[in-house]
Every structure is written in structure tokens, then in C-alpha cells.
Amino acid sequence: MTCNVHDRWYQCAIPGAGSPPPPAYVCAGDLYCINGECTQVEREASTEFKDAMVAMNVMGELRDGFDPDRLKIFSGEHLRCTRKVFGLSNCCSGKGVPLLTPFLCDREDREVDKRDDAGLCRFIGTYCSARVLGVCVTRKQSYCCYGSKLVRILNEQGKAQLGMRWGTPQRPDCEGFLIAQFQQLDLSRMDFREVYAEFVDAAKLPDEIDMSIQIQQKIQNYYNTNGGT
């Protein structure tokens, strides 16, 4: 007959005590014992890993996003899409909505649609770009688009911290930060929840269940090797 289930008993002995305390199960979590007194410790969620991931990605963006000519970092690009007031052509579909008439849209229109859907753009505003007899017939929507979601978030929340403006729809300010300006930012006050999941996926962390199985197998191998039960 083969035994498929083993029980392991643990006890914390008190030095000098006449009789050992009753056995106790260790089922989950962390059980710490000092001088015979055991307590269950609940771990609180920590944001240190997420903060470290943000810092690592910011450093990566700094390496790729520095403009030596203007001495600025994290600058964006001004892009516009076109919407006809009269007619079927609407090349400003909005985030998550496909273009209904892509064959009537130019390259910049399609680029705005692609980048905005990817979460890379900040909407600045709308303005009239063409009039006929005083009537607006064409409107343009203006955006500042960036190389990544992280850079867009840094610009949105960083400019708010420094009181920097975005300009007008006709002339938006998509510039990033001078080094001195970036040094004034408090990244701990920024909300990066939008990109946390992407950072964790990119880190390729080991699967929690697989890791748990591996740890249990190593423990079992240790007991088998040392004659434990």
C-alpha cells in the first residue's frame, strides 16, 4: 500500500518547559513563533515592485526620448484628423471606433486613428479649418501624440504639476520637458495604473502556480532525501 498523503506537525518548544505545547497545523500564510508563542502574519500589498517597474521604464524612455537639439525629453507630435461638416467623410472616428470611410481619409487621419486607439494621444480640441461664405464646412480635431502610453501620462500629469499649458487646437504645445523641468516632477504623485499591467507582462514574471508547484516539489525532494515524512 502506498501512502499518498503525509501530515507534517510543527511545534514551538519553550526552553525549560515541562511539556511541549500541542501540535499546530501550518496551512497557509506566514506563521511566526518566538518562545512558544505563534502568530499569523498577514502581508500587506506593496507598491514597491510597481514603482520600480515605472522607474525602469522611465529610464528607458529617457534614453530614447532625449532631443539633443532642443535639450528636451518626452516631446510629442502634433497630428490632426478631418471631419466634414456636410457629407459622409468623417476621418475623426474617436477612440475605439473604426473609420467608416478610410478610403476618403489621408495618411495623417489614419495615423491619428491608429495612435489614438493605442492610447498614445492627448486630445487638444477642435477648430474650423475651412469656411464657405462664412459657414464652417471642415473641422479638424487636434492631438498631441507620443511614442508610448507612459510618455503621454508623464506629459499629461507632469504638465499639470508644473502648470504648463497645452496651447490651442490650432497651435498645440506638444513639447516635452527641459531637464530642469523634469527634475521638478514628483513621480510618486502620478497615477500609472493604466500601464502597470503592460509593465508586468513585459517583465515575463514566472507563473505563480508553476512556481508554487516547483517549490513544493523541492521541499518534497528534501524530505525524501533526508528521510523525513
UniProtKB/TrEMBL annotation:
The UniProt keywords, alphabetically, are:
Plasmid
The record's listing under InterPro entries reads:
TraN_Ftype (IPR014121)
A Pfam family it matches: F_T4SS_TraN
What this protein is called in its record is: Conjugal transfer protein TraN
